[in-house]
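Section 5: illustrative case.
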């Protein structure tokens, strides 16, 4: 009997020992698998972070080049001089290179056969523009935006890339240089974090940034060297697999690989030996824990771990979606209840209030700037929601907050009953201040003469045409500076620009904000003075303007005074009159005024 129990004990003990050994082996491989999964997730989060930064970076520089190209084409269409275009490029370069962390190096190009540079750099005599990478790239793309491979900048001697665009005349080119420091900084952050080694390559296979600085600009595809890095790059591009394992520097590595939207590629190399060293404390800790708790701890740990991971994923997704909103409310239209998902200051646990219509009106009334309050309160009126969401899932309203920040309020259809009647909506408020102000700034640049800050020809003409269509009476004045060419020939274009700016300032001081004041180009200006249709009032206004002109004092000009010839035509709103007729009438009078020496004006009779 004793022998039987002893044998049974030994048998059970052996089974327990064997089970425990298998448990430890299983725990080892489970820990290894979890660690590799964690390393994969960490690496992919790192790559996704790089992707977000690179995509945002390219969106910004593409916007800059497109805006510069569009503006230059507009200036050329309006017969702007090469000097005016260079002044614009200088302005753009100063605007965007002020932020030294942005890696923008300057805007330049070929205009009317001449090389112009926004940073006012002058190339050496042996610099061959036609053979420069940015020039060749723009020609090859035939109008599409071209991105060069890395090349040595002749100005700084450092590697950079260029974004170039061939303008619609198929001759002129606008280009922008971008330092590789942006990509190098991203790689440096990864290197310092200890996640692994990183390589960023462009669509042609050239290294843009790497933990190994000596590989910069090396083409991993066309270069016939057969190094480990060349093999990894070719495999990553050929297979396009998110991850794979290979030998690198005589060690086994996990390779994480992702192609970005702009076809750049990020390759992250994680050393498995480092993973193993990192895993050992966890494994030994698990071994000692298994001695006392064994299977129960393993089951509970796995259950809680998976539950935690699932919960973290859901919470991360919800927070990511909610992070772009200032506030979020779920509204039950049937029971008139409002559930707060995220307030103006913090995310709540779901506070629910009755009288949802009054509560929402009160919240938005205190949050909205006074001039937009009526508009917003009408928009969120529950009586209007169903009509606003008819045949669509969302509707929006834009407004200023009480802190003068642009916001966008949005209703989202959340739930319908069986008869397709709307019963629940989501009300969210989003901060769009940066987007709105950037849009307004671009609109200002497109409508403004950069030298004088007056309206440009396109903007001014359009506004006058609209006034004529709306039968708004007024006085149209067409004017140019007498013998302006003499100022440029005698004193130079810089002094000529001062004359133009001085005349523009006189126009600003003499006419009202409601009047349309514009520079047509060169030394020619125009004004539409709203409501002025009486000659006596016109003479009084013109004489006040001439007083301003007579007060112009430019120290460099010593032998002559600035004077203007003006042609004036009226629109009394009693009959149809188009802009072209108004312009021709004033232009004929301007010609007559030019026959008179000094400031002069002529009315169209």
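Designed sequence:
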């Amino acid at each position: 009997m004793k022998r039987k129990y002893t044998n049974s004990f030994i048998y059970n003990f052996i089974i327990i020992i064997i089970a425990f050994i298998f448990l430890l082996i299983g725990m080892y491989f489970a820990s290894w698998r979890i660690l590799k999964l964690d390393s994969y997730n960490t690496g992919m989060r790192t790559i996704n972070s790089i992707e977000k930064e690179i995509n945002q970076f390219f969106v910004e520089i593409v916007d800059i080049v497109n805006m510069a190209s569009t503006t230059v084409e507009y200036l050329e269409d309006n017969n702007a001089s090469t000097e005016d275009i260079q002044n614009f490029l200088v302005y753009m370069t100063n605007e965007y290179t002020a932020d030294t962390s942005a890696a923008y190096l300057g805007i330049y190009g070929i205009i009317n056969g001449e090389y112009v540079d926004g940073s006012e750099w002058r190339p050496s005599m042996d610099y061959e523009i036609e053979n420069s990478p940015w020039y060749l790239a723009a020609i090859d793309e035939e109008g599409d935006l071209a991105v060069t491979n890395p090349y040595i900048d002749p100005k700084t001697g450092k590697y950079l890339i260029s974004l170039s665009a061939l303008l619609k005349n198929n001759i002129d080119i606008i280009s922008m240089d971008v330092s590789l420091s942006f990509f190098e900084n991203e790689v440096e952050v990864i290197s310092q974090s200890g996640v692994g080694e990183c390589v960023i390559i462009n669509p042609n296979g050239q290294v843009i940034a790497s933990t190994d600085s000596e590989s910069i600009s090396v083409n991993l595809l066309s270069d016939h060297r057969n190094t480990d890095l060349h093999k990894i790059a070719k495999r990553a591009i050929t297979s396009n697999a998110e991850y794979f394992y290979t030998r690198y520097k005589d060690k086994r590595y996990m390779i994480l690989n992702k192609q970005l939207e702009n076809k750049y590629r990020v390759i992250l190399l994680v050393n498995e030996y480092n993973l193993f060293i990192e895993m050992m404390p966890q494994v030994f800790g698990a071994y000692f824990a298994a001695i006392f708790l064994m299977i129960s701890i393993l089951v509970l740990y796995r259950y809680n771990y998976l539950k935690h991971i699932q919960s973290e994923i859901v919470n991360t997704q919800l927070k990511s979606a909610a992070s772009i909103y200032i506030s979020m409310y779920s509204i039950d239209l049937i029971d008139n209840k409002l559930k707060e998902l995220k307030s103006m200051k913090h995310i709540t646990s779901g506070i629910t209030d009755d009288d949802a219509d009054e509560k929402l009106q009160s919240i938005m009334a205190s949050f909205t700037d006074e001039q937009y309050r009526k508009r917003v309160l009408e928009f969120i009126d529950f009586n209007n929601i169903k009509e606003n969401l008819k045949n669509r899932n969302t509707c929006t309203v834009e407004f200023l907050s009480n802190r003068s920040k642009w916001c966008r309020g949005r209703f989202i259809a959340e739930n319908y009953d069986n008869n397709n009647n709307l019963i629940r909506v989501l009300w969210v408020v989003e901060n769009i201040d940066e987007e709105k102000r950037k849009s307004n700034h671009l609109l200002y640049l497109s409508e403004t003469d950069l030298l004088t800050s007056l309206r440009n020809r396109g903007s001014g003409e359009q506004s006058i045409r609209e006034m004529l269509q709306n039968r708004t009476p007024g006085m149209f004045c067409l004017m140019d500076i007498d013998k302006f060419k003499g100022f440029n020939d005698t004193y130079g274009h810089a002094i000529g620009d001062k004359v133009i700016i001085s005349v523009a300032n006189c126009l600003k001081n003499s006419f009202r904000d409601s009047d349309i004041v514009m520079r047509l180009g060169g030394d020619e200006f125009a004004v539409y003075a709203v409501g002025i249709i009486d000659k006596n009032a016109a003479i009084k206004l013109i004489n006040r303007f001439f007083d301003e002109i007579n007060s112009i004092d430019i120290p460099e000009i010593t032998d002559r005074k600035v004077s203007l010839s003006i042609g004036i035509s009226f629109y009394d709103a009693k009959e149809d009159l188009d802009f072209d007729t108004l312009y021709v009438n004033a232009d004929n009078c301007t010609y007559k005024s030019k026959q008179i020496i000094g400031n002069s004006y002529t009315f169209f009779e």
